[in-house]
Predict the structure.
Amino acid sequence: MIDILPIHTQRTAASRLESVDFAHIEFGKVFSDHMFAVDFINGEWQEPQIVPYGDMVVSPANSALHYGQAIFEGMKAYHQADGGVALFRPLDNWSRLNASAERMCMPEIPEELFMQGLKELIRLDTKWVPTAAGSSLYIRPFMFATDGFIGVRPSFNYRFMIFTCPVNTYYNKPLRVRFEQKYVRSAEGGAGYAKAAGNYGGAMYPSKLAHDQGYHNLIWTDATEHQYVEESGTMNIIFVMDGKVITPALSTSILDGITRRSVLALAHDMGLTVEERKVSSREVMEALAAGKLEEAFGVGTAATIAPIATIGYQDQDYDLPVAASNAFSHRVRAALDAIRAGEGADVHNWMVRV
Ligand SMILES: *Cc1c(COP(=O)(O)O)cnc(C)c1O
């Protein structure tokens, strides 16, 4: 793509790069030098800018703060063996951000604005892309309403921004999760498929109750019968039962994860049977009891694959078998890592050079 937008860039006079200990970065706490920002005013996107990362001023009546018109994305850029940098499936994040925008009555972000903003920001902060195996640059695009008006209606004005954080390998300690059969994350017809800020806020209280009981995450179930599996925490969930890769089918209450999509595509490539359908808590627990539940894991950008070790169901904990070294979750993780590092054949053309 040729660069068609002029992005006004104000470089930092004091890079923080030298002060960062890349071997000991806590997820989400260290921010790269610059950020991208563009305002939507009077029905039009204004001149985009790259400026030093820093605080900004908002009106106390900012309508995103009051009514939650706020959406985001999470994606990563990876250091390549030849010294370059590549993004994993960025156009999927762009189209999902626009799907979230539509659901929240927010303006569409043009592809070139998203892609060019992303690429120029990462090129400018290219030294912030960590080089150690398994590390990456986490990228947070987001958009929020900016009207200073407390009437309830879609805002007229918005800001779209991107900032980035270097992150290390996410240590996948085996998870303790439990079925949640009282509270719900989202309902059919709601906004659960959108990456909307409010979905996270509403999930915190039930998640906190589970944390207090010693669980890392919940397995959310459907809002009507509280039986059918939706997602695990803020990740999609995949089971391997009886040799088949099984995951809840997408709906308006489930977020269409790009990691989920990628894992299912690789499962197809490996010749495995993939089923996207309803999965009940009872089916999972019966398979576990019968020794047919081989693996269960969360999938999402932050952790890639998060293996589940223990499932709580009706006040009892049940341990899953330990996945063998050639288990699907290990093989798919290795395949994804290789593609992202530019070491495995990228047959689906997922990687985009910065
Ligand atoms: C972001 C997110 C996911 C994972 O999506 P990825 O594109 O794989 O990172 C899953 N569930 C929820 C609720 C999410 O917000």
In short: The longest helix spans residues 197-212. Residues 74, 195, 231, 234-236, 255, 257-260, 300-301 surround pyridoxal-5'-phosphate (CB under 6 Å). The longest strand covers residues 136-145.
